[in-house]
């Protein structure tokens, strides 16, 4: 086994735990949480006395819940990992409680199952309106011990006021050190490698500033529409659904100062400074869009079931960080539905050399560091070299490409899913990859005026063709600055 493969395959078991999944029959638990836990079991990371307790309103027995888990693992886990003996062992760790938090039933049964002498984790895979009731119930019923941890999913509020109210509700029952606000983007291997590339290599950090970086592009493009999420999505839109949380976190990791240590609060302190340094976004720095019908699919208005909707399915922004490191370097963010390809990437474009010694200046292209989040996670650095062959010094741009699946060997091809990694971090008590309450509130404080501005003006999103790169005005957002968006492609 090579060194690289050994690095990927090394697994450190966690302490014994009880993980309670509220909303265990829901989509997230069935698609991500339970399959992820099974993969961690196959990897040998779950101790022999770890247990998973499902809780939901459905009137199921533990045997019926195990049968449901068997089906979802069969559907969402690579068949090569579905060893029969390991599956039976994993299913034997599952229990289930029928619990209705609003009716106040099922708490006693849950209390009888949760052990006080192991790590206790409670995953709120439910609507945010139930977060407060669950937090209160866990304390009032004496289920959560002093070291218990709760995991809460987005959306964490829909504006600053609601986020503050939700933070206050959770803080009434749990300490900030016990609250894990999950953003699965931060669990992606490449996102974490962004920090390693910056802070573990002297090569990049001295260049990581406005003197050498021309601009940064962050793209999260999807080929699917809002589909069955139409009613929910129409109340949020691309800014609330993607920019305020996922893309904001990516921007913070790129722009933040080096923390004194890879420590939860040290990292989050630096991210918070970035959010607070974001300049207000003017009207000319935003483009919003809605996809039209095409490619065999309906348009946004049909998907949302709201023919007069002014909610955006696409947004592009030009953002500036007002500090010494980034003075004059713009960050361009874009995300949208029904675009040309499914891709998520961060592209850092460096400035041109101050003087070229070569006659073939036409062949020059910028150095670009591309961090691909999906698909084909990896890092790509575009550099200039001499084109092979006689005939003078002709320059050509080539990529130094590192696909994680290739570079880390065959075992690296099946890297842990973001949810697997983050759930294990909860058990370890490591909050580095989770949002702190003041981070969430600072992000909303920056986002709210943007929304208020277009609501006050009555701005409507621009239509764009399904399968395109977005509205034409998004191209102009870059062209006015003498720059171009990177091509959206897999």
Structural commentary:
It is an enzyme of class 1 (oxidoreductase). Catalyzes the oxidation of glucose 6-phosphate to 6-phosphogluconolactone. The chain has about 500 residues and is an alpha/beta fold. The protein folds into 2 domains: about 150 residues, NAD(P)-binding Rossmann-like Domain (Rossmann fold, 3-Layer(aba) Sandwich), CATH 3.40.50; about 280 residues, Dihydrodipicolinate Reductase, domain 2, CATH 3.30.360. It is built from 16 helices and 15 strands. Strand 12 and strand 13 form a beta hairpin. Helix 10 crosses helix 15.
Helix and strand layout, with pairings?
Layout: H1 3-9, E1 17-22, H2 27-42, E2 51-56, H3 62-76, H4 84-91, E3 94-98, H5 107-113, E4 119-124, H6 131-140, E5 149-152, H7 160-171, E6 179-181, H8 189-199, E7 213-221, H9 230-233, H10 237-255, H11 264-277, E8 286-291, H12 300-304, E9 314-320, E10 330-336, E11 343-350, E12 368-374, E13 378-386, E14 395-403, H13 404-407, H14 418-428, H15 437-457, E15 462-464, H16 472-479
Parallel strand pairs: 1-2, 1-4, 2-3, 4-5, 5-6, 7-10, 8-15
Antiparallel strand pairs: 7-11, 8-9, 9-10, 11-12, 12-13, 13-14
Helix pairs in contact: 2-3, 7-15, 10-11, 10-15, 11-15
Keywords:
490 residues; Rossmann fold; 2 domains; 6-stranded parallel beta sheet; 16 helices; 15 strands
Outline of the structure:
Its EC number is 1.1.1.49. With 490 residues, this protein is of the alpha/beta class.
Helix content estimate: 25-40%
Query: What is the CATH T-level topology of the largest domain?
Result: Dihydrodipicolinate Reductase, domain 2
What's the CATH H-level homologous superfamily of the largest domain?
Dihydrodipicolinate Reductase, domain 2
Structural class: alpha/beta
- Strand adjacency order, main sheet: 14-13-12-11-7-10-9-8-15
Counting DSSP H or I runs of 4 or more residues, the number of helices is 16
